[in-house]
Amino acid sequence: MNISQATFERTSYRGRYQNRPVSREDLMMIMKAGLAAPSGCNKQTTSLIAVDDPALLAEIKALIDPPIFQTAPAAIFVLTQAVPAYRGKCFNVQDYAAAIENMLLAVLELGMESCWYEGHLTDDDHLGQKIAQRLGVPEGYELVCALPVGYPAEPVRRVAKKPFEERAWLNGFGKE
Amino acid sequence: MNISQATFERTSYRGRYQNRPVSREDLMMIMKAGLAAPSGCNKQTTSLIAVDDPALLAEIKALIDPPIFQTAPAAIFVLTQAVPAYRGKCFNVQDYAAAIENMLLAVLELGMESCWYEGHLTDDDHLGQKIAQRLGVPEGYELVCALPVGYPAEPVRRVAKKPFEERAWLNGFGKE
Fold it and tell me: CB within 8 A of A22, min separation 6: which ones?
């Protein structure tokens, strides 16, 4: 699968997953793709925890209300560290977002699906903190995202996007 | 070029570019890959302006001090809109970072190089604002990033990264 094809085919899959495990090799490959993403001033502020232990994953899913990815056989949790990188500014949000996009593309290449769950974990319910606690994440890291990983059991549907002409131009805003 | 290969080969290229134009077709393909990235609640907060007009690009380069990508024959400028997406929170930084990562991978697939320039444009010198003004960008959009696009004239070197084991674990922080 080439890059263009993958970027166009990738979508947020919220359906059920097949009861089929994800290999450790595939989980490692996905995380390696994520950690290969660039980071502001190469601070490498993103860390990852893959969970494929069924009992542990069930415990974590039970913390999430309303529930998400209940049937996923594995998930990757994204941690970030707010490290000042340039003139006192942190770029850790950009860093982890680039890492997540790499992982979403890698998941697709391996024939699987995923979805970027962030707002549900970082809102005022602080579900991310509860998951981090269960995973033994120390002070200084924030758990900001969960990516389910697995083989889809339902058809994959893509969301509609605005026309290209409304979001991209040549040699000036709104041109061509 | 497949996904894993591209994510591992991508690096930040700060060298000189060949005096060889980038085709419009390639610029469009790169921007399409960028706009195919996911966005929080599908708000599609990222917009793009490609600049390949030599006179306009020279004017923009002259605004940037210290200078960057002086020899690049084209550049893509990234605009963002802070649109509340979920429980009043904006995810536009995540949105544009994912779009940028897609574009960096697409550039590589097309045999070219790029580099994510953000901090230099968004710091207290407000160079991004000056570039936005020159490109006719209206209120409500912020210009946050420039991506040069072109064929490299120098060898491409990759930066060292921390060992995988220091940033990725299985079934718990620091495990395996």
Answer: A52, A73, A74, A112, A149, A150, A151
